[in-house]
Amino acid sequence: MSNDTLLVRKDDLHATRLHGADEPRLGDGQVRVRIERFALTSNNITYAAFGEAMSYWQFFPSGEEGWGIVPVWGFATVSQSLHPGVAVGERLYGYFPMAASAVLTPERLSPERFTDAAPHRSALPAVYNQYLRTRSDPLYSAGTEDLQALLRPLFVTSWLIDDFLDDNDFFGARPGAMLLSSASSKTAYGTAFQLAQREGIEVIGLTSAANKAFCESLGCYSRVLAYEELDQLPADIPCVYVDFAGNGTLRRAIHTRFTNLKYSASIGGTHVDQLAASGSGKDLPGPRATLFFAPAQIKKRTTEWGAEAFAQRMVQAWHAFIARVTDAKAPWLRAEHHDGGGHDALVLARVPVVGHEALVDQAGDVGRHRHVDVVGLETGGDRAALVPRGTVGGLELHALALGRLVELRGDVLVGGLGDREADDVDGVGGILIAAAGATGGAGGQGQCPDKCGRKRGT
């Protein structure tokens, strides 16, 4: 059986192609999983943008020089097993390649999880190598897979950022302000949701002018400013910069203006075309911009609190966040399932200018099915929609400017390409919560505020 995999040029994220190859035979102790649903957001673009620096390309080697496979977070079902402890039909949540299937080598099995012991992953951060067994996962429910795929990887990072800042007494900026760039991104507003519960902290969201009203509507920011409105804050306010955008120009502006900047945390790179150049931070005024790596905070807290207490706190925070996100009166996210009807007609779809993402489902059916899952952030009367086409990939609009399948005219997506045309031109863009016992996992990346995703087979 053929395994379709989406390959991305490591030096040009706009260049992608769909590669088909026969599935390899399983060895003793291995399992094959069918990747049925994963989230495709700008978090994945961040994995690609930092692929070399943080070894993200190494998790799923493509075997082709210069080409990589972007990791994604989602759900898979065991379709074949040569391991006595893993049954066919078992459902898993974890870190997968952007492909129809994958081969895992389970070790260190428990009722809650197992680790992929593939030799090439042994030196990589362990949190990315764990796979949760959904039947024993306290965060799992079949009816919320959409939101889990989209939010779990990112909320864990948000929760850990908040904990890291509190653990360090906000670096002397309490009372003071937390400045969050890319404020309409999921990791940013998840962080803001947590920070808003802290005493003595003003949570300032920084975003584009187009997203300002949306960020204000969330209710988790004390104030929201457009990027060009930094002068509305006192220059001497004690503050910490939590940078999800990675925008070098914005970072310099913040470091230059705020003379009482206590700490600068680099989280992700949603502004992928405006990332700070390597070495550019050496001459920044104020504190050195420091990369936040979530697994380090996980290790610290599981050592201090114990694995069970860490898990309990994480589960409690997750349920509180999801309750707010899905509040029936004012939901932040609404999952919608669309079926394109199996046709390739031109589609016009009104799309709000704030973030949307898509779940990529039934990954093996590229170009054959048109079933679509979309999660959109509602603003006013607009609802997220998708252009259903027989192509594969993600439409990363506005800040990422990677989408080539459609044209954006105001807030309307127009047109598309044929079923196979996107193989060479489509641009593509987590966190494992091991909340049921041992360590969990989180990545140190954020994602983009403005995007619309595509579902595999749409």
* Helix/strand/pairing category: alpha+beta
CATH superfamily of the domain at 150-293: NAD(P)-binding Rossmann-like Domain
| Model regions low in confidence, pLDDT < 50 over at least 5 residues | 340-458
User: Can you write the helix and strand succession as a string?
Assistant: EEEHEEEEEEEHEHEHEEHEEHHEEEEEE
The CATH architecture name of the domain at 150-293 reads: 3-Layer(aba) Sandwich
Question: Could you write a compact summary of the structure shown?
Answer:
The chain is an alpha+beta fold. Helix content is 19%, strand content 26%. The protein has helices at 42-49, 145-167, 186-195, 212-218, 248-257, 294-305, 307-325, and strands at 2-9, 12-22, 31-40, 67-68, 71-81, 91-97, 101-104, 106-107, 113-116, 130-133, 176-180, 201-207, 223-226, 239-243, 261-266, 289-291, 334-339, 348-350, 356-361, 371-376, 407-409, 412-414.
Notes on the structure:
The protein is of the alpha+beta class. Among the domains are: about 1-145, Quinone Oxidoreductase, Chain A, domain 1 (Alpha-Beta Complex); about 150-295, NAD(P)-binding Rossmann-like Domain (Rossmann fold, 3-Layer(aba) Sandwich). Helix content is about 20%, strand content about 25%. The strands form four sheets. Strands 3, 5, 6, 7, 8, 9, 10, 17, 19 and 20 form a ten-stranded antiparallel sheet that branches. A six-stranded parallel sheet has the order 13-12-11-14-15-16, with helices on both faces. The longest helix is centred in the middle third of the chain and has 23 residues, at about 145-165. The chain starts with a strand and ends in a 44-residue tail after the last strand. About 50% of the residues are buried.
